[in-house]
Amino acid sequence: MPKLSIYMTVHNGESYLKQAIESIIKQSFTNWEFIIVNNKSSDDTLTILNKYSSNQQITIINLSKMLRRTEALNFAINHTNRNSCYLMNMDADDILADEWLNNAIKYLDENKNADCLAGAAYIINENREIKAIFKASIKSNKNINEFFSYTFPIVHSSTVFKRKLIEDLRGPYNEKISIGQDWDLFLDFSQKAKIFFIDKYSVYWRRYSESITGKTSNQISSRLDKIRNLEKGAALAVSIKNKIKNRYRRGIENFVLSLLYLKKGDLAGFVYRLTISLALNPLSFLTNNKIMGLLGINKEFYYHNENKS
């Protein structure tokens, strides 16, 4: 049976950490190790982690100095067993869906041309209420490499990939990127491997205002990271449709960034980004997600809740 190494970084994750860990432990697939890096938490994270210290499959590493998110991810993944065939990130506020590990490992073992596998996700709030469904495709066995040219169509948590994909990558997460490090990594994967989607639920993905990307102070960095990833992803766009989507998305991100610079009082930054936005996508101000939402148009890959399980 192939071995899976799961890695997690957590900073002040007391609210949801136990749910995340328990969702791993109760999986029917059992040949895993779980590396948890406590990134200098100041709440009850350590107390929660200590309750699992006797579990031989779980390794807890307590950092004395807080690392940036990307650095912490690299620290965690580089402490996984190098003999493990597969790797998977798990975020401390998400919950792994029942049987996902069994489904994912079985698929990857039976489909040798697949190097990485993602599944559908339930989007949940702080109270674990299901608010929407997130799917990279409505079809199973779908190769989704080209989607990464203009978006990040999967959830970082729960996506299983072969260790060989990171062997020649420095990091492997790019430490120049503070928020979009997962998209950047999978752009690297997309250039040398096949990423597949299956229509099975992999994770309960928690989205809420206090998450990292929800903080106003991180929004400019987040947009700059997205623009960089879109510029890198342009090379993956093969079809005319996806070439256009990449260009339009770059226009939208530059438009939103221009507004953030205006809010900050950076007039030069506002004019520069607005000019780029209009050159790439003259309708950027009409096609951003907030405007589309007001018109009742869902974001791509997002669907109404299918059930309440």
Global morphology: globular
Please tell me the overall pLDDT. 92
The main pleated sheet reads as:
11 strands, mixed
Topology, number of strands: 11
CATH class of the largest domain: Alpha Beta
User: Strand share of the residues?
Assistant: 15-25%
Alpha-carbon distance between the two ends = 30 Å
What is the CATH superfamily classification of the largest domain? Spore Coat Polysaccharide Biosynthesis Protein SpsA, Chain A
User: What is the CATH architecture descriptor of the largest domain?
Assistant: Alpha-Beta Complex
Poorly predicted tracts of residues: none
What does this structure look like?
By secondary structure, the chain is α/β, with parallel strands linked by helices. The chain folds into two domains: 4-207, Spore Coat Polysaccharide Biosynthesis Protein SpsA, Chain A, CATH 3.90.550; 214-299, no CATH class. The chain has ten helices and eleven strands. Strands 1, 2, 3, 4, 5, 6, 7, 8, 9, 10 and 11 form an eleven-stranded mixed beta sheet that branches. It is globular.
Tags for this model:
309 residues; alpha/beta; Spore Coat Polysaccharide Biosynthesis Protein SpsA, Chain A; 2 domains; 11-stranded mixed sheet; globular
Layout of strands and helices, then pairs:
Blueprint: E1 4-10, H1 17-25, E2 32-38, H2 45-50, E3 58-62, H3 69-77, E4 86-89, E5 95-96, H4 100-110, E6 116-124, E7 130-134, E8 142-143, E9 160-162, H5 181-190, E10 195-206, H6 219-233, H7 240-264, H8 267-280, H9 284-287, H10 289-294, E11 302-303
Parallel strand pairs: 1-2, 1-4, 2-3, 6-10
Antiparallel strand pairs: 4-9, 5-10, 6-7, 6-9, 7-11, 8-10
